[in-house]
Amino acid sequence: MSVSRYDVDRIEKAVDYMENHLSEAPDIAAVARAAHCSKYHFHRIFSAAVGLTVHDYLVRRRLTEAARELTAGRRPILHIALAAGYGSQQAFTDAFTAMYKKPPNRFRREASFYPLQLPLRLNGDFAALRDGSGPWRAVPAGPADTPGWMDLVRLVVNGFPNLQEDEYARSLRDAIRNGQAYIMRDGSTAAGVLMVCREAGSIDFMGIHPFYRNTGIAAALVDQADQIFHRDRREISITTFRAGDKADTGQRDTYASLGFKEADLLTEFGYPTQRFVLKRKGKKRKR
């Protein structure tokens, strides 16, 4: 997708509107009016840029805020369900459980919040993306890259179930210090990031800014991992959602397109996941 500053401004206006009307279940026509464009045009630019429809984005945002309230407050679950736009507690429970893998009452008892979808905050001018001067080279990340890296993490948090930001930030600092964190920059914007574990031969985190999904960055980051592991690893592993998980926004398909194959089923931090494995052949994947 070619991103214009005008499109970014429209998406930001729409996000502000949605954040102010989360409990009102605004339809796409109302959101498009807030963005000052037609419903058709807004649906096209939002879905292409963000990778989610407006409806899916709103569902994830409402459930995220419901999960936050479940762990931080004492309001009855029915009240939380109604505020999240659901007509009954059962409808809310079904939707919540499909995404969070546990019903609201259990989620409240365990009191361990994590977001499905944070508000979109689109920082950067995306200069290289607009003028086609990519691809961008992965370089070792340094401490100064931490703010931009974390901005990207918040944008793509929907692909990483049970991600706890404080714990993740500590892991990132360790990875940077140990030379196991790589970044692709478009100016000050983190277009793609890669965190690896050399000892395990695993990709512990791979995030791509939504605007750069179709620019070959995913393949370039996997090639970077291939180079890191070239001496002593016959395979590279990564974990993601299990098949059929409604929280999956396309991560499984992305890894399959890069040559990863399904491996063992896991449970990580209480969340059901699946390990994917890439058999190394010493050749670069097609961009």
The helicity comes to: 40-55%
Strands ordered across the widest β-sheet: 1-2-3-4
Shape: globular
Order of helices and strands: HHHHHHHHEHHEEEHEHEE
Strand content: 15-25%
Annotation field: number of helices: 12
N-C termini distance: 16 Å
| Poorly predicted segments | 283-287
What is the arithmetic mean of pLDDT? 90
The computed structural class is alpha+beta
**Biggest β-sheet strands, sense, barrel:** 4 strands, antiparallel
How many DSSP E strands?
A: 7
Rounded to the nearest angstrom, the radius of gyration is 19 Å
Name the descriptors:
single chain, alpha+beta, 3-stranded antiparallel beta sheet, 287 residues, 4-stranded antiparallel beta sheet
